[in-house]
Specification:
CATH architecture: Beta Barrel
Number of strands: 10
Structural class: mainly beta
Shape: elongated
Radius of gyration: 24 Å
Helix content: under 10%
CATH class: Mainly Beta
Strand content: over 45%
Distance between the termini: 37 Å
């Protein structure tokens, strides 16, 4: 068999596999949990005796990314009966809030801060688990990586970062079955996200959860 014939056979097999692969489109609501962004202390130098007099604390500032809902879209392509390659996007408006404590002249205060445009674009692998299965129900585990893009309120500063996630969930078929060529159902996800870079005043890795409630259409 010539090289050209082998190449043609490989292309035919790959093309046939892609054509038979099931594509699933998911869309719905996502919820991102809150996490710390950083803390700072405002101080004044005192006139106390000594080479290094202790500073006087004016107040402490704690900044936090508040929990927020958003819209989520995911597209998956099945590779075999148990695995799916999946990509998705999450868009949300998140509140960068801060609080002031330790001020001797006033009580603790909380401020809304600014609104941040929050985008996550990710890709990963979904594995259908061999447990907790029924005619209409399938459970799964998932994991992957993503790109984080955060835009400040005045759209004058953009900050990027990375997301690494692991989690799992369940799918329930409303119409059709897991083996059907065309079907419709509901999906719920729970993830734990490890975030690097992005908006952060301490340049630390942050961990926060996300929840998703989606409707899916298998094509």
């Amino acid at each position: 068999m010539t090289r050209q014939a082998i190449a043609a056979l490989v292309c035919l097999c790959v093309g046939s596999g892609i054509a038979q692969a099931q594509v699933t489109v998911n869309g719905g609501l996502g919820w991102s949990g809150g996490h710390d962004v950083g803390a700072a202390t405002a101080t004044l130098r005192t006139n106390a005796p000594g080479a290094t007099p202790p500073p006087f604390t004016l107040f402490n500032v704690d900044t936090r990314m508040a929990p927020s809902p958003g819209g989520e879209v995911r597209v998956g392509v099945a590779i075999g009966s148990r695995f799916t390659i999946e990509g998705g996007a999450l868009l949300a408006r998140r509140q960068l809030a801060f609080g002031i404590t330790g001020d001797r002249e006033s009580s603790a205060q909380q401020f809304d801060g600014e609104t941040v445009q929050h985008y996550v674009f990710d890709g990963g692998l979904l594995w259908e688990l061999p447990v907790l299965r029924s005619v209409r129900v399938r459970t799964f585990a998932s994991g992957g990586v993503g790109y984080l893009r955060q835009l400040h309120q005045d759209r004058t500063l953009v900050e990027g970062g990375q997301i690494y996630y692991a989690g799992g969930g369940m799918r329930y078929w409303l119409r059709g079955r897991p083996t059907s060529a065309r079907s419709l159902g509901l999906r719920g996800d729970v993830r734990l996200n490890l975030r690097r870079n992005g908006i952060d005043f301490e340049d630390r890795t942050r961990i926060y959860p996300t929840l998703s409630f989606l409707m899916f259409l298998a094509l």
